[in-house]
Amino acid sequence: MGYFLTVIMGADEGRSHTIEGDQVVVGRSPSAQFVLADESVGWEHAVVARVDGKWTVNNLSAAGTRVRGKKITAPTRLAPQDEVELSPTCRLLFAEEQDASDRPSPGVLIAVGALLVLLIGVGAAYAVYAFSSTTNRPITPNHWRNAYVLLDSRLEQWTASGKMPPRALLLFRNAWRLEQVSDWVNSASNWEELNSLLLTQRESTITDDNLTLSESASPTQKALHVLMGYDRTAHATDFEWDTNNSYADALVWFARKRSTITRQLADDTGQSGKKKKKKGSK
């Protein structure tokens, strides 16, 4: 019976690795058996191993690993369909390959195939639309978390090297933390203060442009969508997007959008002191 790991959330979503032998190391290291590009994953993050015929996972990273929602501190038993969380934005599924005896018979496959042919004609137009049109897909909380983790890491690097004032990183983290506890008013205030800082922060400290970060922001949110994992045609690890320019652009859009969203939530929930107008009222 074979087993495999599949990334079900994160920058590498959809990638799978069939486990050959008795263990597989997962991480960003080229020497790992299952190499991931996700920057939220450790260099050698975890090892999945077979011990006495039973599969276990053991954490190797300072960031920690969770199984079934609990942080592990020792080799932990894995069962098929268990989720392994490497980071808040990266999860793996441990699964069992289907045994040949459990597979449907050729007759059943032929019948299913005939049905699919019939359905394809009906659903072709919708399928083309669904796969070609990405602008109508909703942006989920996971998309925002993906971008937050990557931007936080880059902001920390910029702060450590003196390219950004420590205040920027503090505002960024505070605004996000306050969102997680639904303190929309104070979160919005932090995002707005960060936006003001970005209006004066010269990009020359990060890139070769002497404009402020806000002035140099692109008219689209392409870089932000790539960091979110929302843009399926590119990844944050691609050479074109793994640049200070792209991260600076994404940071501006991230702060702008979160500021608008949290301010609206503050108004809608009455936290801002404003009462939501009823329909028909003046």
Q: Mind sketching the topology for me?
A:
Layout: E1 3-9, E2 16-18, E3 23-27, E4 34-35, E5 46-51, E6 54-59, E7 66-67, E8 70-71, E9 76-77, E10 82-87, E11 90-96, H1 106-132, H2 141-160, H3 166-180, H4 184-200, H5 222-228, H6 244-268
Parallel strand pairs: 3-4
Antiparallel strand pairs: 1-2, 1-11, 3-5, 5-6, 6-9, 7-8, 7-10, 10-11
For the structure shown, list the relevant keywords.
single chain, alpha+beta, 282 residues, 6 helices, disordered C terminus, six-stranded antiparallel sheet, elongated
**What profile does the largest beta sheet have?**
6 strands, antiparallel
Pattern of helices and strands: EEEEEEEEEEEHHHHHH
Low-confidence segments: 119-135, 278-282
Q: Find the structural class using helix and strand composition.
A: alpha+beta
Number of strands: 11
With helices defined by DSSP (H or I, 4 residues minimum), what is the helix count? Answer: 6
Average of pLDDT = 80
Bulk shape: elongated
Kindly state the percentage of residues in helix: 25-40%
Strand content: 15-25%
Strand order of the largest sheet: 2-1-11-10-7-8
